[in-house]
Structures are given as structure tokens and as C-alpha cells.
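Can't attach files on this board, so I'm pasting raw text. These are the components:
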Amino acid sequence: MTAVSTGDLTVITAGAQMFADTLRAQGVATTEVAWLPPVAGIEAPLTSVMLDPRRVAANARALAAMTSAGASLVDVRPAREALDLDAGHFLHAGPPIGWERMSGPLRGALVGAVVYEGLADSPEQAEARLAAGDFSFEPAHHRGAVGPMAGVVSASMWMFELHDDVHDQRSWCSLNEGLGKVLRYGAYSPDVIDRLRWMGEVLGPALQTASRATGPIDILAIVAQMIQMGDEGHNRNRAGTLMLLKEWLPALITSGLPTTDVTAVVEFVSGNDHFFLNVVMPACKLMTVAGNGVSGSTVVTTMARNGTDFGIQVSGLGDRWFTGPAQVADGLYLANFGPDDANPDIGDSAITETAGIGGFAMATAPAIVRLVGGSVSDAIATTRRMYDLCVGDNQRWALPIMDFRGTPTGIDVTAVVRTGQLPQINTGMAGRLAGVGQVGAGLVSPPMECFEAAVVAMAEAVPPMTAWR
Amino acid sequence: MTAVSTGDLTVITAGAQMFADTLRAQGVATTEVAWLPPVAGIEAPLTSVMLDPRRVAANARALAAMTSAGASLVDVRPAREALDLDAGHFLHAGPPIGWERMSGPLRGALVGAVVYEGLADSPEQAEARLAAGDFSFEPAHHRGAVGPMAGVVSASMWMFELHDDVHDQRSWCSLNEGLGKVLRYGAYSPDVIDRLRWMGEVLGPALQTASRATGPIDILAIVAQMIQMGDEGHNRNRAGTLMLLKEWLPALITSGLPTTDVTAVVEFVSGNDHFFLNVVMPACKLMTVAGNGVSGSTVVTTMARNGTDFGIQVSGLGDRWFTGPAQVADGLYLANFGPDDANPDIGDSAITETAGIGGFAMATAPAIVRLVGGSVSDAIATTRRMYDLCVGDNQRWALPIMDFRGTPTGIDVTAVVRTGQLPQINTGMAGRLAGVGQVGAGLVSPPMECFEAAVVAMAEAVPPMTAWR
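---
Top answer:
C-alpha cells for the assembled complex are below.
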């Protein structure tokens, strides 16, 4: 017996979990280093990408572009006008996908949108026309737009329009319908269509009037405040919704619109804690667009799901998609729904995590980890883990609980593949079957495949060593 | 050299700070037990009070009454009507005080109130009449009301009226004027009086219409939400203000009042992050009133300051005041004001700490400790320390960062005197001179004297030991 064992033992372990578990079972304090061996078979391309002499500077440039972007709400108008969208052409969430591979909620939302546009007299007829190939589809991301859940946009739907005056870019998102039986979760019953009509006839025009009278509203400044108020900007947007409404109020009240309409609009907006999500998303899209297209940068600029595939885009590879199978979230179910009712992960809302909030800012919204039985320390641990995957912090968005450190920003695909740790996404869950609507909310991760595929593609684009300076 | 010194030393110290400091200077990890000897000379009465067999049950009863109280906003009306207040009779913050001992800001607020009531043609005339004894004063607390800072209430001022439907009690507070040059900070310039007139002619009547049409608004439920949104309810009421405005909005918009008035009211309320403070305070007053008058209970039911004296009341001693000199806060100064410009602590707003929020919920609002150069861990340490002074937690008000533990509630005077630790109060700072207005915001503690005096009085009220069962 040597002297050292008479004091308290403290052990540091790295790698194999078994060592730490065994020691802890014997009551020995153990500090684990979060090191995991890289995913098997990926060593060669990973090494090549990590040695790319452009990488560090390119990532710094991508991060600087993301964190310096502007995002002001400048208008509210129909997609027909804002995006030059024709009737019969539909935008959807996530990477490209054809009707035959589409999941229930995406099909359901398209059925509803076809009925809403008057292109079919019944859901049955809409489905038949969709299956027959009468209409065309395109990812919202391809138009600089984003949509939560199914993310379906048709010509008559009204859109928030945001502008980045630093990089002169625009982004768009539809208006949030509320929770439960709504189109974006795949529901298309008559009440869903009626609500869309009211949104097109009353809500959209009222918010257009209010937004134009108010002038540009700095959405990034509201996000900076909301993340100090328990909102992480993805599954919780309570303070953000009230702060946006506050900006519109004077213009809404003096709009000259019928009082019943103004009241209905105010009650609709303030009664839906998620209303602000559809403004946060295009703001995050503007940040990631600003960071896209930097040669040699391994920063993820899109994470999006169509309910079947999870797709990412990487700054140095422009608009190429890298996909893998969408996962089912772990979370809390509404009413008597259960895991069998849930569709795999769907929606463009993971743009919030791509820009450093949502699951990445979990530490500021511990109420959300309670959905999966977690505690405050789990929430803090999640944000800590995300710092390890990111190229930097966003000083404009300070997290009080992290001693005002900026949000973890700019997911590095090499960090994901090297550590085996995946980005954490907070999400709603859609019913598996078309027409059901929301069944729950919870936490989910992307499939590792898309990050591996991106690393392989990055490796192919690394300049030959002879070209290095 | 024995074996133990080859490992890392960890030392636990209790009492004299010097041991811990010396060890730490030598690089030795030291855990301090926050134990302090009781205040000298107080041992005998303290022992007597702590041995009082009624104490534990009485404190549990006081806590249960506080945490089960209701507090709904039920009306907004003039003090003349709500409190049967005559012209020439003025309420003020803190314990009783005469004109000759009043501080600058309290005198300034009274001067402004006399001018506002038309009882003098100029501030000079108002001051002369006040000094001549033409008017009468009374603590707001004596009428079940509370007021921030000077807390001056005159007959024409409009009041929030709250009702506790569990204990059938009412409480009142004036409407918040905003920050800077305002009456409650001792300012009385013409713009201050003009604002009070607008509040009496437009704001008060509009909020009366909105409140009566809306019906009772559960203020404790809003507080439960706001403390999950970075507000501690004393120096930060941002989310609370927006949530209260949201409740009023439909009624305000459909009130039939002129659109310009509705817009002005909405902009006034939403443009003042402190507006909700004047609703939180009477809600806290209802909680503490519910816990007052329990024989044998050592729970503090009032902490209030008039700018000269700091006074407390204790449940087992009913409405008796125990006072000591008010202290100057440590904090951040506005513009080019400094410590010499600050008046000692003033206002009834420490009713928030008495009910378990404000400085007691500091952990949820780390932005506030930054005022005094503190960090997140200082904020958490403050709330931890307050648990040590309190008889229990309020389960209705969960603090996310404390793993959803309830707010520390029911300050025990024996815990304060026994440990030498004082309650932590967040506060605004008024200028020392009448007429100046706000000079800063910061942190302050009560003087130990009032807690000692309360312990001595409690000891006199302990039944003789022969009466113990």
C-alpha cells in the first residue's frame, strides 16, 4: 500500500465508458474527458480536411459573416408576390424529395395546401392530383425561405420578409398557425383550411399594415433579449412573441382596421407562444446564408428535414445537400399519442440550432429538458457539449447562465465526425399519418451519415499539398 | 511527514475568516461553513425565542398562509375612493416619520403631491405648508397599501386594487410613472406634475375600463412565469409588464376610448419595464398580510424604508415597527451621479423580498448582480444564502436555475440574528436632495438593529416556561 491511496482518489478517464462506470460503482470520484475515437473508416478524409491549410481562416470568416449579419422584419406579403410563387408550385421543408418518398405529415400538408389554393375540391382529389404529378415541389431553402415542420408554402400564403442590410440578403417564412391540428403538422381538416383563409384575409393584411407603418424591426435584438428570458428560440418563444407584438401594437391600434379584426389579430398572436418562431427562423437563415460559400470552411450552414431525410449543407460546399435518415425525437407526447404515432423528424426549424440557438442554447431554457425528464444540469451540459462542436461564440447573444458567454455558433463537421457527438435539436413531433397534426415535442439528433458524407466531399475539394503555401 | 500530506489537502473551516484566508493564500482548497457567532449581547433573548415551543408550528402556519394567499388585480381607481383618502392627508413609504426627520426624496415627493392636489401654487409654498404642519402623513402600510421609493399617495392618484380571495384581504399601490425624473424618486418639476395629471386623466381611467372588462387577473400566476423569464420582480419586471399588458389588450382595444389615448396607454405601459412592479408589490403585500399576526411566529412580514429609517414587522408581534438607520445601496449610478448624491434606502418595494422574490430570487436574474460587478455564481450564492434565512420554499414560484426549487420565503428573525447574515434587497437609488429624482440602482441590506429589537420584543412575549405543555 503506497501513501497515495490513503487520501481521496480522483481518477481522470478518457474514451471507454466502462472504466469510469466501474470506478464510480466503487465510489471513486471520476472525471471523464469527453473523447471518443473518430467514426471508423473516416480517418483518411477527416485527416485531409483537418490539415487543409485554408480551414481555420475560412471557418473564422464564415463565423464572422454569420455573427455580423443583420435581420430586420421589413414586410409581410403573399408568397405569390414575395417569392414569385405560381399556383401549383409548392415549397416544402428539408432537402429535395418526390411524392413517392414523402412522409405522412408532408403529404398531409400538401393535400391541405392544394385544397386551400382551390386546386382540388376535396382532400381525396388533392391527393390523387398530387400523386399523378400535376404539381411541382421545391425545398423552401432553394428560394432562401424556411418553414417549420412540413414547411409547405403555396402562392396564397402570407410570408414574413426579413432583410439583412449588411449582406443585402432576404429571407422568408410563413405565418405561424398555432399548435395542435395545423397544416404544418400535416392536418388538413376544414378547420385547418378555414384558419388559413382567415390568416390570408385578416391576419396577413393586418400585419402588413402594422409592419409597413412600424418600419424595420430588428429581430436579432429581440432574440438577444429573449435568450435572457428563458426562450431558446425554437421550442420556446414566449418572451419573443410578446416583444414582437409590442413593436406592432401602436401601428395596429391606429391602423384604421375594424376593431374586431385588430382584437382578433392581437389575441391570435399573443395567444400563441410559438408565433415568433416563424420570425426567428428566417433571421437564422440570413445568418447562415451570410456564412455560406466560404471556400474551405467546414461550418454547417443548413440542417433541415423533410420527414424522411435529414439534410445538411456546408459553407465550403455551397448548396450541395448531404443526407441521412431522419430520426424520431425523444420527448413528451400529447393526449394519448405515443412513440408509434410519431413521424421521423421534420422541418426547417433546425436552422435555429444551425445559427446557435434552440438546442444549442438549452442552458437558458431548462424547462425544455424537463420534457425528457432532464434537469438543469443536463441543460447546461448540452450547451457545453455544443461549444465543443462549434467554431466560436456569438457575442451578440449572451447566455446569462453561462456567465454571459455567447451562444455556440458554427457547427464544424470535422468536430462532429471526430468526436462522434451530434448536434442537439429541440423539435415538435408530427403524427406519422397525414391529417393527424402534432403528437408531441422533444429532442432529436441528426444522423451521423450526413456529416460523414460532407467530410468525404470536403476531402475531395482539398487542394493538393503541392498547392499549399 | 505523514502520508496524508502527499495527497491534496482539503480543509473545512468554520467561523473566523482568517483561517480560511490564510490557507487559501497558501493555495490550499478550503470549504467555509457559513457560521458566524450570534450578535453579541443578544444570546439570552435569542435563546428564549428559539426555545419557544410555539415557534416551529407558528412559523409553518405563517408560511402556509403566505404561500396559499391569492392576489388578483380587480380594479383601478383613485385613492380618494379606494382608500377613502382625504385631500391634505398623504401616505408614504416605510415606518412612521414626521416632516422634520424626512429625507430629501420623501420631502420632494410630498412637495410634488401637494402641488398636484392644487393645495399650493408653487413648490416653495408647498414646502412651507408642509413644514408648518398643514397636512397629515401616514405609512401606506397602515392602510394595507404599498408604494415604491417615496411611496407618496394623495387623494387624486389612481391605484391598482388587488384582492386575496383566500383570506378576503385587499391591497393597493399607485401606478408606475416610469424612470428618471419622477415623483417617487423625489422630483417635482412641472413635467413630473404634468405626467401625474395625464396618469389621472387618461391612464387611470383607461386601465379601470380595461381591468373591469377583463375581470380579475391572477398576478401570482404572472409572477410564477416571470421568474422563469429573467425577472426577479423588484429591479426587473420586463416579462411581467408585457404579460400584464397582454391581459388588458383585448379590452383596451375594444374599449371605445379614443385611439390616440389607447395608443398612448399601450406605449406608456410597454415602454416602461418597471410598470409591473406596482402590481407585484401589493400582491406580495397580500401574501405577507396573510402571514401576519400568528402568535409565536418569528417570520418577518414587512420590510420598508422611509429614506431615514428601515423598519420591519414580525408576524408574532402584529403591527409593531422595529427600526434602524436606512443604509445607502451599493450599485450603479446614472449619468454623472455618484455615492455622495444617493439618499439612504427608501420605499416599500422590499415587500418583494419579504415575500421571497427580488433579491431573494437573484439567481433567476443574474443581469442584476452585474450592476455591482457580480457574476452568475454570486447571484446563485445570494439566493442560496437567503434559503438559510427563511422558514421554507414557495412551491408556486419555482426558480429554474435552482433546479426548480421554490423561492426562499418567510425570513426568520432568529436566523438573521443567529447567523449575522442580512436579507439581500435589490433597489433603486433616489437622489439625496429633494427634486433630483433617480440617481442609480443597486443592492442594499437592512440594519441589524431592527432584527435584534424584534428578537428582544419576541423574547418578552414568550410564555413563561411553566406554561409550556
